[in-house]
UniProtKB/TrEMBL annotation:
Keywords: DNA recombination. It comes from the Bacteria. This is Tyr recombinase domain-containing protein. It holds the Pfam family Phage_integrase. Residues 1-201 form the Tyr recombinase domain.
Amino acid sequence: MMEKSKDTPIHMQVLFGVLMGLRRSEINGVKYSDIDYINRTLNVNRQLGRIHNAKKEDFAPKTFTKQEVGLKTKFSYREIPIPDYVFEEILKERQVYEANRNRRKREFQDLDYICRSDYGRPRSKGFHCKYYKQPLAESGLPDIRWYDLRSTYCTLLLKEEFNPKAVSKLMGYAKELITMDVYADNREIIADGVPEIEAYMEMVLPNMEENERFKNGLLEIVVDATEFLPDIA
């Protein structure tokens, strides 16, 4: 699915959904300025949608549902680690962004959105619908909903024994109970429907056991510091 989506305009949207668990409206609101390039994390700060009680005639054409608005709850504001694959694709997409900005200097809207048109305009909430089914079919995957990408991300984390409380924070939920109630019963989805995604996620997600062995190995290292100390008569 991720490979097939490379030939469509929704490649980054797919990656943000299945490898980082972002909501559809959050994906469209992600900007390059939200990326911490040193620590490779994403700060989720906004979503695109309608401003409450606003009138369509008060906005420019085709922008009424693309306004920057606050997230669903205070828990939706969160920091998410970026898998290496996604980080590399963000860097590639930034090169495309700069090329379009230089090529279309008069028409380009320099709004900093990662998911955008060639003219810099943000995507609408339903933009993915036109392209989503094709890579699914070409990959031989079930006809799953777009929201199932986010569900897959959460299910895989729980399947890999990640702490439910930590998973809740990554998903933007207030309590781990919500995560377990919504997703715990769906653990068989991966085994039954999309094993290819599970195999890929195992490559990009942190290996907790390996990390623990690495830390323990560091504790066992003994360094002879005598050569760095002054001679004592």
